[in-house]
Write a structure and sequence with these properties.
CATH architecture of the largest domain: Sandwich
Order of helices and strands: EEEEEEEEEEEEEEEEEEEH
Largest sheet: 9 strands, antiparallel
CATH superfamily of the largest domain: Galactose-binding domain-like
Low-confidence stretches: none
Structural class: mainly beta
Helix content: under 10%
Number of domains: 2
Radius of gyration: 19 Å
Mean pLDDT: 88
Distance between the termini: 44 Å
Number of helices: 1
Shape: globular
Number of strands: 19
Length: 272
Amino acid sequence: MALTSAVACLDGWYDEERDDQGAFRWMGRAARCRVAGGPGASAPYLKVTVGHGRRSVAPMLSLSINGGPATERRVRAGMSSVLLAIDASGDVEVDLTVDHTFRSPGDTRRLGLLVRAIEVVDVNRLDEPLQVEGWYEWERDRCGPFRWIAPEARVIIPDGMREAGSSMALAACTLPESGGQVLTVSAGDRVVAVVTLDGEWRGHAVPLPAAPATGGIARPPLDLALRIAPPVPRALHLADDRWLGARLAGLRICPDARSLQAWRAQYESAPA
């Protein structure tokens, strides 16, 4: 985790390290930091990017903001981001606790989780969707950059991108041997799209629910849940410790049919 003026590491942190993805810090069983918040945020969220590389282990991470009730999230192998809505416009104090620690061979430290970043994000000021909780880091194949997602993931759509008639375009595929997987996209209790996946990259359009009228009051962003069933069988990725659902790429919000058609033109196998 990079040491910047926005984050003050207080208790429970080991020294900063670096890998090919940048700076990070290991936490012990419990750690605390103070994060600078942006003034006047209409939709402030705390974003915590964490991970580890242990196969078949999913530690429970508890997060408490300003001494409030703890929120728990399972952290599986690989790197992913946890996003929590916060009710604060100034600095926030964050307590992180993991349910167990481990020792790496040759390392005497008691390690909890690798923390890549902690930051306060005003989602409604972003100019693109925020991909969190279940999105792994970028990779490439012959078709270009993509990200694996876990069988459960989230996408947060800024309010300003959620207009009448808009849709979320994305390309998706899975391993050819996985066949028969289904992607379900939901907003709260409402299912907004169900997509069948196969081993070919295909383009899909997810219609976005209309935003409610608020009389000029700032609206919250749209929180979409992505669920893949069944997960990629473990036997198909024995050398990969991650919990895998499907590969996604090209995620974009299209405000109208014309922009969606232009997006589809990039994917020859996109269904009509």
